[in-house]
Specification:
The chain has 294 residues and is α/β, with parallel strands linked by helices. It has 9 helices and 12 strands.
């Protein structure tokens, strides 16, 4: 059954081909190869430094953390949503996660959304054939459309995170699912969170309760970056003592040897997760949920 589109101009739901609203005639623009549903927000409303996309695209492909997170996301998608045929990523940024999913699941129909046009410029280069949307996660123009919706280190940037979760539920088919990653543990708050425009770091209890209120049943949750948690804790405490001498790229500038070693540790951690372990402590939290069928 085809899902519904939602006109963000008048609120009408419709299931015709194309994006012309049969009620008010509104048609979103296409700019730079992507649909524009939401003009970019003002500087005062943003939850991310759009200039950060240029920094990210230069480090993602070789960095142990981004690579390891991708592999964990792909495992969750394969293990819990093996029958999925369509996937939407909220806040796809430069398209690094989506490109990994595309390589791992060539038959999966992908879509990506991002508030900032700067990110979509890089995503379009990585994903020339994937539909991309410039939209606000608080106003998603889809209903019952996707088998799986993902948001990877996105919710912490948005004050109205519960609204986003309800929007994700709206966009997900009944019986479909979501995959979410967020930074974890409030006591790890440091300059990197402030610099990254984070609104919060989550506790597992907080995220689980918010996801359940949005209409999902939790089917899996675990911390990750758990084996490396002591090193992360030391690094965060060191940042707090830096007294303004903060380098936002310091954690990405590691030697090839150290980067490889950290990725191997994360590989061992992922193997433990795949064997059924769910870690209570870690720098990040991953959650998978199934939308209620009623």
């Amino acid at each position: 059954m085809r899902g519904m589109k939602i006109c963000l101009a008048c609120g009408r739901r419709y299931n015709t081909h194309g994006w012309k609203c049969p009620n008010c005639g509104h048609v979103p623009k296409i700019v730079g190869g992507h649909w524009v549903f939401e003009a970019q927000k003002s500087e005062g409303d943003k939850g991310f430094d759009a200039g950060g996309f240029k920094r990210l695209v230069g480090v993602e492909e070789g960095n142990w953390w981004f690579r390891s997170r991708n592999q964990l996301i792909n495992w969750v998608l394969r293990h819990y949503f093996s029958q999925a045929k369509s996937f939407l990523e909220i806040g796809c940024g430069t398209g690094f996660v989506l490109s990994s999913i595309q390589n791992a699941f060539p038959g999966l129909s992908l879509s990506g959304s991002e508030l900032f046009a700067e990110g979509l410029t890089y995503a379009r280069d990585r994903l020339p054939s994937v539909p991309l949307f410039q939209m606000d996660a608080r106003r998603i123009p889809f209903e019952d459309e996707f088998d799986v919706v993902g948001a990877f280190d996105v919710l912490e940037h948005i004050q109205e995170d519960e609204n986003v979760l309800f929007q994700m539920a709206q966009a997900t088919k009944k019986g479909g699912g979501i995959i979410i990653t967020v930074p974890q543990h409030r006591f790890l708050w440091s300059y990197i969170d402030t610099f990254s425009y984070h609104k919060r770091r989550y506790t597992r209890k907080e995220l689980v309760e918010k996801v359940e209120r949005a209409g999902f049943k939790i089917i899996y949750a675990t911390s990750f970056v758990s084996f490396l948690f002591p090193l992360m804790l030391v690094a965060r405490l060191k940042q707090r003592r830096s007294k303004g001498h903060f380098d936002p790229l310091a954690e990405f500038r590691v030697s090839h040897f150290l980067n490889s070693a950290l990725e191997k540790v994360m590989g061992a951690e992922r193997a433990a997760i795949q064997m059924g372990f769910s870690f209570p402590i870690g720098g990040s939290l991953l959650l998978a949920g199934e939308r209620n069928r009623r």
